[in-house]
């Protein structure tokens, strides 16, 4: 992908061609920044867990500390999975398929991509998918 310059404050708009170079660069930067934040938070958690070698004499304090640790690790695991989805979105930017619904091939709205840059389905396709999932879950 050619080097694209974005002016400060640039936000993709429906007034320009869908997934042009500027929009792809905007979302690429957004995804990279998000991934960087997640990795930094994970590193901070690791440092905190390593330094937190507390030996609580009180069972309630120990249980509370263990619960907090388990919640933190679960959150980090979810974020680890999220980095894989971010990497997949970055790959789609590179191959030109980013921003298009995997199910219909139609463009995913810029508003949806802004809110969920890793989206692979249009809002309509996502809603259909969730309805089907609910039907099967209710059986």
Automatic annotation (TrEMBL):
Keywords noted in UniProt: Cytoplasm, Metal-binding, Zinc, Zinc-finger
MF annotations from Gene Ontology: zinc ion binding
Cite the SUPFAM superfamilies for this sequence.
Answer: DnaK suppressor protein DksA, alpha-hairpin domain, Glucocorticoid receptor-like (DNA-binding domain)
Which segments does the record annotate as dksA C4-type zinc fingers? Answer: 101-125
Under the heading Gene3D superfamilies, the entry gives: DksA, coiled-coil domain
Q: Where is the Zinc finger DksA/TraR C4-type domain?
A: 96-131
Q: Which Pfam families did the record assign?
A: DksA_N, zf-dskA_traR
Annotated GO biological processes are:
regulation of gene expression
What highest taxon heads this organism's lineage? Bacteria
Residues of the DnaK suppressor protein DksA N-terminal domain = 23-93
The cross-references to InterPro entries, in alphabetical order and at most eight, read: DksA_N (IPR048489), DksA_RNA_pol-bd (IPR012784), DnaK_N (IPR037187), Znf_DskA_TraR (IPR000962), Znf_DskA_TraR_CS (IPR020458)
Localization, per the record, is:
Cytoplasm
Name a single GO cellular component: cytoplasm
Q: How does it assemble?
A: Interacts directly with the RNA polymerase.
Its biological purpose is as follows: Transcription factor that acts by binding directly to the RNA polymerase (RNAP). Required for negative regulation of rRNA expression and positive regulation of several amino acid biosynthesis promoters.
Under NCBIfam families, the record lists: dksA (TIGR02420)
Which family is this protein grouped under? Belongs to the DksA family.
What is the official name of this protein in its record? RNA polymerase-binding transcription factor DksA
Organism in which the protein naturally occurs: Methylobacterium pseudosasicola
The taxonomic lineage of its organism, from the top, reads: Bacteria, Pseudomonadati, Pseudomonadota, Alphaproteobacteria, Hyphomicrobiales
């Amino acid at each position: 992908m050619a080097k694209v310059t974005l002016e400060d404050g640039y936000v993709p708009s429906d007034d320009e061609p869908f997934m042009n170079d500027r929009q792809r660069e905007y979302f690429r930067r957004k995804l990279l920044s998000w991934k960087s934040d997640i990795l930094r938070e994970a590193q901070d958690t690791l440092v905190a867990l390593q330094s937190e070698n507390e030996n609580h004499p009180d069972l309630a304090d120990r249980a509370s500390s263990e619960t907090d640790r388990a919640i933190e690790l679960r959150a980090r695991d979810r974020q680890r999975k999220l980095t894989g989805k971010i990497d997949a979105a970055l790959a789609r930017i590179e191959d030109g398929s980013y921003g298009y619904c995997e199910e219909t091939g139609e463009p995913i709205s810029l508003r949806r991509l802004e809110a969920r840059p890793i989206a692979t389905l249009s809002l309509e396709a996502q809603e259909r998918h969730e309805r089907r999932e609910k039907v099967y879950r209710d059986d």
